[in-house]
Write a structure and sequence with these properties.
eight-stranded mixed β-sheet, 22 helices, four-stranded antiparallel β-sheet, alpha/beta
């Protein structure tokens, strides 16, 4: 982790930092409230030497006294001083307990001893301080050397008698509250950083690239609204204008640049584990590719938990397995989805041996056949780590796309999936992170950058209304184009022609459901020859 990761961890958990700071401050105030008030009384004594008639003797006596000052301060908490205090004041305590309430200090380069006594009662603090100083004076006098008249050579004189304190010095509620708030903040920061270090769920582009070392092709924002079924969820994602639909269009555009030197016409969509959005991504990617490619095929090769038929609202009883077992021809097994140029090959009946089915030679032949007859083929396969079904498909297709879910897919799982695919000879062209919250989706490079989308090749499946609109617009001497998607042209001469654009031009979205009968390319019909490409092959591989 670098500095940016630490700051991101703190930013994402700012509410935790605020809550911990407030809780710490409140806990500090509560702790200060339950603590008893503490009062302190202070008294000071001057230590002097009674010996010396000359200046040199006085200096020697002063130096002698300063050398004993710390010893006198330590005497204040000894039983020799405190036991008489307990007896005289009849205190219900012990010497050790009383010593904890007394502190004695010596000011630097002075002969002054300062005693401080702490008590919960202000009067008791004053009385105890005076009694301790009197007892210390007697003990020092008894221990100091005597002169010829048996008078002590060292004497303590009280210079600051103790006074009764007016207000408590503790607890300091403000200081305790600030300390509690700082402690809560520090604990929250430590927790946030440890959480970021130990939490390996993928959230950012850096998480994916750092863990798997594969290209990050983009983020798909999480659509709003409640999700009821997979089919209604996909339809809502595509029909609603916004960043979700544009994210799939960017993903489709990214595939054009994923293999510039090769001929990428098939991709296997998979994930590390189930529930990470591979089927949703495969279906929406097919919808986006249909805007750019004349003929697109979606294959459901997840024979363990097939969901493409549910997502597209198609019959799943006839599909891939029936075509592989020759119970039906490939053309009869493929279904047309909606009014667009999308064909779907559902999974068909579930076989008892899905791994052997997808690894069979018949499956390899089917993939080669559809690759030759479609402009692009999207294959929805099983997860990589639980089963080995995807390995053969990914190797045969030439490219695989891994899908992860925001804060669900873990870095270790993604790394293992990439290693498993590359170890089997497959090529992973990139990673897509879906279900990203809207507030995090705009930070991706692919969200901010302008994507240059190559123009889709011309196709004979364009509806007659579109063709007439285009011809009338180009043949006119002057033309106007309205923002609603309707184009008109007026020729200077004997007449004029006006054409309206198709529903796709008006809405800018592919309609997954069949809403009305529109002219489409039939099986076996050969499109017009383009100036840049050879004639198209039939839409279905074995259609008559």
């Amino acid at each position: 982790m670098d500095l940016k990761d630490y700051l991101t961890a703190l930013r994402d958990r700012w509410y935790l930092l605020v809550a911990a700071t407030v809780i710490g401050a409140v806990a500090g105030v509560a702790y200060a409230t339950v603590q008893p008030d503490q009062y302190e009384a202070t008294t000071s004594a001057y230590v002097s030497s009674q010996r010396g008639d000359t200046v040199s003797e006085l200096v020697q006596g002063s130096q002698y006294t300063q050398g004993l000052m710390q010893s006198y301060a330590n005497l204040a908490t000894t039983p020799a001083v405190l036991q008489p205090v307990i007896d005289d004041l009849r205190l219900d305590t012990t010497v050790d307990d009383l010593a904890k309430k007394i502190s004695a200090e010596v000011e630097l380069n002075t002969v002054i001893v300062t005693l401080t006594v702490v008590s919960e009662d202000p009067a008791d603090a004053q009385t105890t301080a005076k009694a301790v100083m009197d007892s210390l004076t007697e003990v020092v006098s008894g221990l100091s050397p005597k002169d010829a008249d048996q008078n002590p050579s060292i004497e303590l004189t009280t210079v600051t008698p103790p006074s009764q304190p007016d207000s408590p010095f503790a607890p300091n509620t403000r200081l305790i509250a600030v300390t509690g708030a700082m402690l809560g903040l520090v604990l929250a920061v430590v927790y946030a950083i440890l959480k970021q270090l130990l939490d390996t769920r993928i959230r950012t582009e850096e998480d994916a690239e750092r863990s798997a070392r594969i290209p990050f092709l983009g983020r798909v924002p999480r659509p709003g609204g409640a999700r009821k079924t997979l089919r209604t969820s996909i339809s809502a994602q595509w029909d609603a204008s916004g960043s979700t639909r544009e994210a799939y269009r960017r993903l489709a555009a990214s595939l054009d640049f994923a293999d510039i030197d090769g001929d990428l016409r098939m991709v296997v969509v998979s994930s590390a584990f189930a529930g990470e959005g591979k089927t949703t991504t495969a279906v929406n990617l097919t919808l986006a590719l249909a805007e750019r490619r004349p003929r697109v095929l979606l294959i459901d090769a997840d024979l363990r938990r097939p969901r493409v038929a549910e997502a597209c609202g198609l019959d799943g009883s006839v599909g891939l397995t029936t075509a592989l077992t020759h119970q039906a021809s490939l053309a009869d097994s493929i279904q047309t989805w909606g009014t667009r140029n999308i064909d779907v090959l559902t999974s068909g009946l579930r076989p008892p041996n899905p791994t052997e089915v997808v690894s069979s030679a018949a499956m390899q032949d089917l993939l080669r056949e559809v690759r030759d007859h479609y402009d692009f083929v999207v294959v929805d396969s099983a997860p990589v780590l639980p089963v080995s079904d995807t390995l053969t498909l990914a190797r045969a297709s030439g490219a695989s796309l891994l899908v992860g879910r925001y804060k669900v897919t873990r870095r270790q799982s993604l790394r293992r999936a990439v290693d498993t695919l590359t170890g089997a000879g497959a090529r992973v062209i990139g990673f897509v992170l879906n279900a990203v919250p809207p507030e995090h989706s705009s930070s991706s490079y692919y969200e901010d950058a302008e994507v240059i989308e190559p123009a889709a090749p011309s196709d004979s499946s364009t509806s007659p209304s579109t063709s007439s609109s285009s011809s009338s617009s180009t043949s006119s001497g002057s033309g106007t184009s309205a923002g609603s998607g309707t184009s008109s042209g007026t020729s200077s001469g004997s007449g004029s022609s006006t054409g309206s654009s198709t529903e796709e031009t008006q809405t800018g979205a592919v309609q997954p459901e069949v809403e009305a009968e529109k002219p489409t390319q039939r099986h076996g019909q050969t499109p017009k020859k383009s100036s840049k490409k050879p004639p198209r092959k039939p839409r279905r591989p074995d259609a008559p």
